[in-house]
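Per reviewer request, we include the raw input and output of the structure prediction for the construct analysed in the revised manuscript.
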Amino acid sequence: MPIEEDKSVLERLPACYLNYLQSPSKKSPDPKINSRYFDFEISGWDKTLDKDLSAELVTLIEAYCGVLSQNSKVQKIESSMREKNFTGHVLNILRLQYDNYCYQKLPCGIEIETALQQLYAELSYLLKKVVRVQEAIVGLENEKWHLTCEENRPRVAAKILGLNPSDDEKLPPFFELLYNFRCNGYMLFYFVLKDLERLLFDKADYISDTNLSDKYFKFKQNRYYDELYNIYLNSIAEKKSKGIWNAQLIEICRRHLKEIFGGDMSEALKYYWSQKSKDPSRNFLWDVFNEEEILSQIFIPKNQDE
C-alpha cells in the first residue's frame, strides 16, 4: 500500500500497531491483528530464513543491547548516589552534638567546621576511588564501628580505612570529629563515606574497577561486543554524552547489518522480527533501523477490521 509522504508516522500507522511495536509487553487490543504487523508476515515466512544469518544477527543484537544494559546499570547507581542527601545528615548530627558547630572547637583545638573540611580532604586522599570508599563502608559493619569503645576508636578507624592499626597515631587530629558517638554520632563516619562515594563517583573508574564486563560471560564469544564496548568505554572516559557514543554504536551496527545482508535492510528487518525476543525493549529496532526502513515494511490494512 503506498505511503503518503505528507503524513506523520502516527497518522500512517494504525494506533494499535504502533502501541504494540513500542510496548511489546502489552497485548494487542484487537486479537484479529495479533498475527501480522509487517508485509512479509505471510504463512510460514520465518521458516524460510537462513539459520546462520539469524544467528549472526542475534550476536549483533545482543552486543548492542548488552552495552546499553551495562550503561543503564551504571546510570542507576550514579542516580541513586546523587539522590541521597548525606551532606545534610552529616550536618544534622553535628548540630545535635554541638551548640555551634561552625565555630566550636574539638579537644584538639580545631574548629569543627574546619575539621569537617579537612576530614573530607584527607579521606579523599586516603581512599581516592569509589571502590575504596565502598570497601571502607563494608569495614564499618565488619568492625562493628557502632560498638567500638572510645579508647579504641582511632585504631578501628585506621583499620576501616585500610591503614596499619599500629600506625593509628598518625591519623590527623581532626579525626576526633568521628569519635564523638553522642546523638547517634557513630553514624557520622558512615554518612561522610557515603557522601564521599557520591563526590568521587566517576563512570570510567567505576566500570574499570568493578570489571562490569566480566560479569557478562556470554559476551566473551561475541565478536561484535568488544568493538562496541570499547567505544562505550572510551567515550565514558572522555565524558562524552550518551547521544554521541550511542550514535557511534548505531553507525557500526548499521554497517555490520549491511555486511550481513548485502545491503538489503528490508531483509535485515525481516530477520530482526523473527528474533525480536532477543530485544524485548525494542532498542535495536528503533535505534538501528530508520523510519523509512520500518515504514516500508509495515502492513497497513485498508480498514481496522482487516
